[in-house]
Design a protein that fits this description.
With 267 residues, this protein is α+β, with helices and mostly antiparallel strands. The protein has a single domain, classed as Beta Barrel (Barwin-like endoglucanases), CATH 2.40.40. The chain has helices spanning 2-21, 161-166, 191-202, 221-227, 248-266, and strands at residues 27-35, 57-58, 64-65, 88-91, 94-102, 115-120, 129-137, 146-150, 211-217. The strands form 2 sheets. The chain has a 6-stranded mixed barrel with strand order 1-8-5-7-6-9. Strands 2-3 form a two-stranded antiparallel ribbon. Helix 1 (2-21) runs antiparallel to helix 5 (248-266). The longest helix is centred in the N-terminal third of the chain and has 20 residues, at 2-21. It is globular and about 75 Å long. The chain starts with a helix and ends with a helix. The protein binds 2-acetamido-2-deoxy-beta-D-glucopyranose (NAG) (4 copies). The site of one 2-acetamido-2-deoxy-beta-D-glucopyranose has 8 residues, from strand 1. Residues 32-43 form the Glycosyl hydrolases family 45 active site domain.
Length: 267
């Protein structure tokens, strides 16, 4: 008599997996912008999502801070973003990175520390892909899904925290809304930001806010090693696709089989 109960429980779990797969905003299309403000990222506060640890922050010397309650350097506090949460190219068509994220109809517990695979759909980098982790939240524009790519020298900010942190003039970060104007302007950035500033011109081809298709994926260690943040729901995603590990079709078939099995055993 035990088997039918197990079958019923299993079929329930299979249907739960199917209904989770129907949450369409795990994937979609979005716009991108660039940002780099040196502020403590929003996902660096405890309780922003169900995760192992908030996103790593750094002190004024770009060294990891252990106190997640420290205030942001953009408002008189001691916590800044760490310069290693910035993009790098694996090869000519694939890069890793970090972003401030906004996905419509959701709040930040939905994306903080989640990873997304982006496929660029416009401009010179059309067809290239990135996998990035949401280390921040982009609530400043909420009319559209958006990934604000963290790119040192890729934009300026009104708080001028980078200038304060690195004791350099704000002008080294370029023009408001644009950032540095050429690859050679990256030479003026603090050393820790130069490589990822060059990335914008070498890999990203200085594309002007390209659009993307995105899908949630399981975070690679290459990214979580840097932020120290892993979401509790990571096991629902695989490393190359937003689909749950049980494919909807196979889990539906399994559920139907389980029902047939349990019904026949009950009779
Ligand atoms: C989709 O996501 C929202 C927000 O996280 C959640 O409230 C809702 O239950 C999800 N829907 C499904 C079918 O999982
Ligand atoms: C720079 O940041 C501002 C504010 O978020 C944004 O409106 C603008 O589009 C950004 N610039 C680029 C090139 O993404
Ligand atoms: C680039 O790297 C990615 C990730 O490792 C890999 O899947 C892809 O095949 C590589 N592409 C080329 C052209 O080497
Ligand atoms: C992540 O960190 C662990 C522990 O330090 C290390 O063994 C592993 O190689 C790292 N993985 C990547 C992809 O950097």
């Amino acid at each position: 008599m035990r088997l039918p109960y197990l079958a019923i429980i299993f079929s329930f779990l299979a249907f739960a997996a199917v209904s989770r797969a129907s949450n369409v905003s795990y994937s979609g299309s979005a716009v991108t912008t660039r940002y780099w403000d040196c502020c403590k990222p929003s996902c660096s506060w405890a309780g922003k999502a169900h995760f192992s640890s908030p996103v790593q922050t750094c002190d004024v010397h770009d060294k990891p801070l252990s106190d997640f309650s420290a205030g942001t350097g953009c408002n008189g506090g001691t916590a800044y973003s760490c310069t290693n949460q910035s993009p790098w190219a694996v090869n000519d068509t694939f890069s890793y990175g970090f972003a401030g994220v906004f996905i419509k109809d959701h709040v930040e517990d939905y994306w903080c520390c989640a990873c997304y695979q982006l496929t660029f759909t416009s401009g010179a980098i059309k067809g290239k892909t990135m996998v990035l982790q949401a280390h921040n939240t982009a609530y400043d524009i909420t009319s559209v899904n958006r990934f604000a790519l963290g790119v040192p020298g890729g934009n300026t900010s009104t708080s001028d925290a980078c200038a304060a942190e690195f004791n350099v003039p704000q002008s080294v970060f370029g023009t408001p809304g644009v950032g540095v104007n050429s690859r050679s302007d990256c030479d003026n950035l603090p050393d820790a930001m130069k490589a990822s500033c060059y990335w914008r011109f070498d890999w990203f081809l200085d594309t002007d806010d390209p659009t993307v298709d995105f899908q949630r994926v399981q975070c690679p260690a290459a990214l979580t090693n840097i932020t120290g943040c892993r979401r509790d729901d990571e096991h629902d995603f695989d490393s190359t696709s937003a689909a749950p590990k049980l494919l909807p079709l196979s889990s539906t078939a399994t559920a139907i089989l389980a029902i047939i099995l349990s019904t026949s055993l009950l009779l």
